[in-house]
Amino acid sequence: MSASAAPILGAAGLVAAWWVAVEALDVAPYLAPSPPAVVEALAGQPGYLLRNAADTLATATAGYALAVATAVAVGIVLAISHRLERAMTPLLLVLGTIPKPAVVPLLIVTLGFGSGPKIVLVWMMCFFPIALATKSGLRSTPAELVELACSLTASRWQLFLKIRVPAALPQIFAGLRIALPLALIGAVVAELFGGISGLGVVIQTAGTRADLAWAAVVLLAGASTVLYYLLTAGCHAAAPWIRHTTA
């Protein structure tokens, strides 16, 4: 079986199991619609769903990009300075463990309605795993590579750029891939609490239209899957020598 066929067969099996379960248990359509009903909802209101999907993706992308830029920078600082690591670790732990939905009302009160609170929540969701992966990757450089670079009289910056960063890329890429689905989750959570557009709003306002709510969920799952594979392809292109570690 090819690598590209396996995910397709897995998704087809999941849809088939969903369809069989709904039909066999005779579940009411307003509780759990069948896959054909969801497809019909997608086909019935494509403009409405795609417009809100675009809003959710824009929020998730903005927050994720901000998280990548800041988290990688912080991870580098923590890896270089033990003193700053000790000072900032409690703050990072608070940021990583605080229940994110609990801060949404506070963000709305502080930043108002609109994209601001949603982007900040996405940033909060994605920051911790990326920063932790960056710090851990830079700290786990094989000792023999460091010794080899030192024996060749490499400077501190040469050691960092040519040895530590390439060796850390597998863990950094892993952090990026872990954080990516969290970006969409953060965007939808913010929309559920106080959004005026987005797939979270579609789900919240669907009411008894379970088929419409599930259509929004299917779009979210599809977008998350596509973005994940695009990010993986980008990681492979950026560092083809570690392809086997990021498959």
How do the helices and strands line up, and which of them pair or pack?
Blueprint: H1 5-25, H2 35-44, H3 46-80, H4 82-97, H5 100-111, H6 115-139, H7 143-151, H8 156-194, H9 199-205, H10 210-238
Helix pairs in contact: 2-10, 3-4, 3-6, 3-8, 3-9, 3-10, 4-6, 5-6, 5-8, 6-8, 7-8, 8-9, 8-10, 9-10
Coarse structural class: mainly alpha
CATH architecture: Orthogonal Bundle
Radius of gyration over C-alpha positions, nearest whole angstrom: 22 Å
What do we call the CATH topology? MetI-like fold
Describe the structure.
The protein is mostly helical and 247 residues long. It has one domain (53-237): MetI-like fold (Orthogonal Bundle). 82% of the residues lie in helices and 0% in strands. The chain contains 10 helices and no strands. The protein has helices spanning 5-25, 35-44, 46-80, 82-97, 100-111, 115-139, 143-151, 156-194, 199-205, 210-238. Helix 5 (100-111) packs across helix 6, helix 6 packs antiparallel against helix 8 (156-194) and helix 7 (143-151) crosses helix 8. The longest helix has 39 residues, at 156-194.
Short description:
The protein has 247 residues and is an all-alpha fold.
